[in-house]
């Protein structure tokens, strides 16, 4: 029963996450968490705020001398700009003399203020901001450390920005380490250097025109053994849980597993991954259209899942909108100025995928103690050989 | 806190569902539930079993004289073929002299037997079978009745089979009743008569070749008021919950909301739905790329969500596989013989979408009693005008 | 993630339970489940209905040839009297010409009809009836089989009826098998034969006077190893979960662990169970005031927990009440006529305790497959020696 | 779906709580939260630490200008002694040269280290410490503010310390304000001044002897309207949830509702609360043995629930124990030195009861926005008159 809650507004004092249910005795490296936070902030096409906020996590509980002790882990990421915002965001007292009242299309602004009966859109946008995903990246970074210790690595790469496709199918069968290092040197987290050049140009152009771009990223989990998730009840299916997690990232509007939407045009005779067996290798496939899951269960192949991000809805040339106080036409307010956040979203995607896999892993193996978990996995690996 | 569990094997005695948390005093029409079950069984390209099973639901609890009483509702769907299967599926005693040992690619067969340490694949395939979705259709039919009483209608239509696209974008803004009746007369639940003809031919051809076809369906929820779901925590987002629910349907490999994957190629200036206001209409949009949700919250426009189904993996010409007992190559077993189940999957899609909306509705409004729920919704509708 | 839902009215067609999350490959003996159902129906002082209903469970899913297969298990207990009640309880159509309108004190009648806005108290009392506990006994009987396979036995005995105390402290350290057989021959599930005689006389007398009696029972779980439950978060504490489960049994008004309320008068120097160690025995205590749990975690001693049951509120001499339709004074209706149901409640108590322990066990050890669970427990037992 | 997580070690940097699901627009007064934290620290018989830690809450999210905005609320309570403990509790690096190895009876020390495979008992005792309850008091203080706005007040009083009983039955029907003020001036949160004197003497004496005392406290919720909780499923019962919450407080070993364990000796004819009706008053009772709940549902009378606390197990004269490293006999370590913490536990009891009631309230009425919640409750109050 691994679970977490996150909290925090974009311009409030801090983002906080509490993770409950980690095994005790697990090494937890803060530097790696900070590394993931830095990866979320990188990326060609990011606006000024990313420079302000070099995120650092502080651990307030659950870890002692770099090792978990079984109790809930608190992660705090301070918002460095907080002092400048205190007057407009004070938790205890005051009032905002300049409420935001022009609802931005494509954001939670309008449905959020309606639902929660707010008169200042800031009450909504502060939490609906993508800043919230920093907390999830921190949480996912912890999950990644858990996974890595049992041989599972989660990486991402960008396959499309603004309609420009990268040719990157090779990664799905490649060697993790090689791909990972190649991605590290890419400004857009993209494997196809030619496509990346064109993507950069498109971002440049969009930026000059005050426009924004969306795109697609792919998450791959290497080293997942068969048996995570389950067919027995709908809410235990690994694909359902991964899809829900990815769709919960702000601006994500679609998710597909393996061949995904291309399955519509594939006849059954070409669609499925035939099964083979060799004594040293165990069961294996020569194709992976299924994206590593069958019947809602991991099947031992790499898990492959993609998500599409809509372009950032805050434009330099604001969209037509309405003032929620006067009900008169108004230009949508500007809150930030990234041109393209797809590479950052991919990092968030890794985080949520890592979380779901860690959750499924602990459900399957229990493991209050790090050694118990390792022993259970070892037993299982021997059993299923 | 609406919740449900389903149970039942494909050739066991029955499918059962328990729904907990429905308001008391809600009229529940069994005929409508049976109507939905029948819709799931219809569809060009379905195999012989659909004739055997004319599903009927039996209510064992929670409803008295056609009205809910607040206690859990039990729905049972008998498997009519049970007597013929009793010997191979007896719960209490016996053994199967002919276990299934050839794992079918594209099914839960192999990962399921590995995970659960089974030696007879039947132990897995019986529950992993799409038959399970009949229980979810029954559950969804109850949710639909709840939604309908507050003005929300959930329908579906097929937009692609085997790569053949229907031109059906109009439906998203059309009049529900008109569309619904037009769909009723379609053998494939498709709005584009021309495309439907070509789809039928493709199905015919695939059937003759022992092949199968997948496709895409679209779910539209009309009449959803703003404010279902929330931006405040990832697992409360309506889009995330809908995506998870749709992806949990067997054979679904992708989900997209509104413009979905097409967002990748749309610049921000063209992607977002500008906001307008008129006194009689309230807030409205002239486009609906967002598919009725912004920031994980319904925004008052129709909810539009699509899913892709892979072709049925059980082919007349079996795929290469392995015998789990001998580890020798084996031809995958045949269990059923539909050519294309996309129209049926669309009905299941409606059911799970209806469920998620009903859940979100009750979370927002509470409502132990039918009248209390109606009063809360009336109040909200007046408040947000 | 073991979970269950139950459903069913007292005079409806059946009680149903779905259990989700049992390991696959676990032997499940229906006769043992029926044996527990019979134990619930026994007991000196029970009314006529107990003769009508000789409960039998039917399994509709999740079990094949006497072994679980990982999918949800459906248990159905038919209400034998259903045909006589069909007209007053039909799910689909009809109406009750004789609604119950006199609210009985001590039942859910009044708060239930208020909450759910019902005009016929039968809509409430049918589910609030103690008959619901038959489903929980069936569920608990499954949990008991799981526990027994890992060496944990849950038994109960009655320690007080109508104020008459049994002297039964010895059981807590005794040999399970001996106690269990001794209890089997007791009409009141009581270890103290003298006290039992006086209890019987008290029941006899109360029955003659149209009165009813409550009492206290004790649940003991033998063989629980240390480490179930947790101190790390309030809702993981084993004592909290056991207390919640016991208090959820109809008519239970108090729960205490180990020395329980007697702790108030014990100074700390006499209250706590000192810790000793011997190579062959491991850690042990010479007293068990803590009732087998410290810090919300099982500590390896027997778990001891008691609950008090109020006297059955349906009396032959009805209490003063009000007609919910007329608001005039009315005599409370009679629905059944047990004099004392404490021995039956003890059986329900065993069931819910067994469930909570099984839940905690699977949380700790995972175990999709029976062999994996056993291996994980073996490993743990060796690790903690 | 109100929920929270807490985190934090006794000597770590801080306690943290995240509350998710509060309605937006609710006034939240930090001073009141601090007031409750101060109440937890008061009390005759508390040791030195209570002087060190004058707890203050800091809000990091979810509240703006003193009003909730719908997003998760983060509460942080700094541990003022942290700087002195940093070396022994550093999250990131270091090691403890003086691990705690003597397990204290009556604490989580031994079962916790076994479960989580720790070699330094500090890894367990830091979280198992009653310090954790400060976070719950803060969370409960928020719940109390929500309840107070709808007319529900939760108070507590001590009825027994060390076996000395207070005569305080009157409170259950009294005027809240009067009782509350009278309790404020009591050092032991006790209504019976005579008994309180004797309790103080007993505490004094125990302190001199290096001993400790337990006791009993009672929680009363005034103003609860009928209909919270439900009879329809075991885990919705209000009494079950309250019992679980109270039993989850460290050192609590028993819980009883209304007449509680005294029900065992009451015949049915004297046990139940007869129902009356008057036009202006609505339904009412002349007795409240049921403690305000029937069938797991609040019935409109005051909710009355008691809990027993065992004496603090850390004594000046240590108990016999074992060193977990050497397995040799050892004297249990001393970590703190309160003589009696029953008044503090009563404050924690109020907090957890308030939380459960707030949870049940929001489940029943929904209410994303403060005004919507109020309107729903108004409607219900009119409906049930």
Automatic annotation (TrEMBL), chains A, B, C, D:
A cellular component term, taken from the record's GO annotations: cytosol
Keywords linked to the UniProt accession: Amino-acid biosynthesis, Aromatic amino acid biosynthesis, FAD, Flavoprotein, FMN, Lyase, NADP
Enzyme Commission number(s) from the entry: 4.2.3.5
Binding residue positions for FMN: 127-129, 295, 310-314, 336
CDD domains listed in its UniProt record: Chorismate_synthase
Cofactor binding note of this UniProt entry: Reduced FMN (FMNH(2)).
Names of required cofactors: FMNH2
Chain segments annotated as transmembrane: none
Catalysed reactions, as listed in the record: 5-O-(1-carboxyvinyl)-3-phosphoshikimate = chorismate + phosphate
Pathway connected to this protein: Metabolic intermediate biosynthesis; chorismate biosynthesis; chorismate from D-erythrose 4-phosphate and phosphoenolpyruvate: step 7/7
GO biological process, one term: aromatic amino acid family biosynthetic process
Subunit: Homotetramer.
Function text: This reaction introduces a second double bond into the aromatic ring system.
Family statement: Belongs to the chorismate synthase family.
Name of protein: Chorismate synthase
Source organism per UniProt: Thermosinus carboxydivorans Nor1
